[in-house]
Amino acid sequence: MAHAVEIRDLHKSFGALQVLKGIDFTVDPGQVVCVIGPSGSGKSTLLRCVNLLEEPTSGQVVVDGVELTHRDVDIDAARRRVGMVFQQFNLFPHMTALENVMIAQRRVLKRGRAEAERVAMENLEKVGVAAKRDAYPAQLSGGQQQRVAIARALAMSPALMLFDEPTSALDPELVGDVLTVMRKLAEEGMTMLVVTHEMAFARDVADRVVFMDGGVIVEDGPAEQVIGAPQHERTRSFLRRVLDPTHTDV
Amino acid sequence: MTGPPAPSGSSAGAGLSPRQRRNISRGVQYAVFVVLAALVVSLADWAAIREHFLDMKVAENLFPEIFTIALKNTVIYTVSGYVLGFFLGLVVALMRLSSAAPNRWIALVYIEVFRGLPAVLVFILLGLAVPTAFPGIRFPFDEYGVVAIALGLVSAAYMAETIRAGLQAVPRGQMEAARSLGMSYSRAMITVVIPQALRIVIPPLTNELILLFKDSSLVFAIGVTSATSELTKFGQDIATEYADSTPLLLAGATYLLITIPLSIVVRRLEARQAKAR
Questions:
Q1: What is the pLDDT of residue A181?
Q2: Contact by Cβ (8 Å): B177, A92
Q3: Would you call B100 exposed, middle or buried from its count of C-beta atoms within 10 A (0-12, 13-18, 19+)?
Q4: Are B181 and A152 in contact (CB under 8 A)?
Q5: Which of A23, A34, B47, B254 has the fewest C-beta atoms lying within 10 Å of its C-beta?
Q6: Closest of B248, B260, B160 to residue B210, by C-alpha
Q7: 3-class DSSP state of A216
Q8: What is the DSSP string of A16-84?
Q9: Please, what's the b/e burial string for B40-66 (b: 16 or more CB within 10 A of its CB; e: otherwise)?
Q10: Chain A residues with CB within 8 Å of chain B CB
Q11: In this structure, what DSSP letter does residue A13 have?
């Protein structure tokens, strides 16, 4: 079976700073892969390379059989198949929740108003914020905004969803709602690549966990192995710090 | 241990509380204003002022043309120049932020040239030099066209910088979210970034409208007929005719009739934005 995502020897530098130093990995259709690692390890950059929000310095990114890093590829068309959810939600503040979910359907997929609204409402219902259809982002809580953002991405019928620390900007009591939606998506068989600090979510939901540090993948395996019985000392020390913040390494 | 800390600054004011000292300083300011006003009033020759600035017989001759011709033309010049300047300014602002270096250079040169030149010089160049250099070219709508283009060229440079600042004030994540949904760069600009940027720059752009309203008086530089004259020229012509300054005063008052309400609108918009933030 073809991979949903295939990344080969990916390098990314910002000026002299090497952020990704040769990444190879794949995601299969229907898989949920969580990427964990300390801040500055390159995990967000890796995710942003998957839909080319960052242009890789070298290497290949293949999504759904299309090589995005190829010179002749229509990147706008390719991105339609890849949904992305951001840490800061990035809802369009001048549009209501419903308009946020409709706008790309209308302008990119050229769907009619009625169809776009139907699809938008389906997805707003799915994430539990249908009642807020006419609210502007500023009138919504962070958790509601993030769920609208998920609905906005889902409305494009993506083959793959990218989540870039989707709960990091949320108040602790709002994290659960967003994770519940993501869990539901995973159960429905959505292919997901999730950068997260939520270890419980990674352990329970992810098929695989990838641990990154210093621009390379240190460990890549089943969730229970990488989180439960890590093979590398760097993974172990990271998990000790995350799971017990009062613990300090010597 | 020393005693309780003294109220700040009380040692210098010789026993006066900060509030008392503030009141004294206010009193001194008001006294200075009153003295200056009294000086101006007493030095002025009121008989001459009444004769040369408030002559009702001269004033009568201004109506209704001061509204039907002068103000009308001022508004036409201003609005046409503003509309042209806005769209040109938007294009220049987008070029200024373009990823293509030549676009950025052209935009920068444009802004520097038209912000650096006195507006009156642009009027003269456009009204007199261009017809000489390009004998075949005729501006549409005669004076109206020349003025609209001159005001548009000048205001576009200022508006471009304002709009650029507005575009840059829109968080980068907005463009990224739009692109991640499959929108092209220009589609994302039009649907997501530009509407937000314009909302941010409405107050400064309205200020620009006020400035332009006054700059429309520079029309005198290209010479206008009585049918196309605007407020300043109109007032000046009649003032010369009667050797009396009343028309100038009335022309000035007519400007304020427009600019003060606009200023109030700007202040309201700014207050609303401050609240929304």
A1: 96
A2: yes
A3: exposed
A4: yes
A5: B47
A6: B260
A7: strand
A8: TEEEEEEEEEEE-TT-EEEEE--TTSSHHHHHHHHTTSS--SEEEEEETTEETTSTT--HHHHHTTEEE
A9: eeeeeeeeeeeebbebeebbeebeeeb
A10: 51, 53, 76-77, 79-80, 82-84, 86, 88, 90-94, 103-104, 107-109, 138, 149, 152-153, 156
A11: E
Write out pLDDT tens, residues B31-61: 999 999 999 988 888 888 888 888 888 888 8
Edge-to-edge strand ranges of the sheet holding A5-14: A17-27, A5-14, A58-63, A66-67
Cβ–Cβ under 8 Å, residues A177 and A128: yes
- CB-nearest partner of A88 from B173, B181, B276: B173
Q: Could you tell me the pLDDT band of residue B9, with boundaries at 50, 70 and 90?
A: very low
CB-based burial, A107-143: b 16+ in 10 Å, e otherwise: bbbebeeeebbebbbebbebbbbbebbebbbeebebb
User: Could you give the CA distance from residue B251 to residue B76 in angstroms, rounded to a whole number?
Assistant: 16
ipTM reported for the complex, 2 dp: 0.93
**A83: chain B residues, CB-CB within 8 Å:** 180
With contacts defined as CB-CB under 8 Å, which chain B residues touch A104? 178, 181-183
What the block records as the tokens of A129 is 């914020």
Answer whether B173's CB lies under 8 Å from A72's CB.
Answer: no
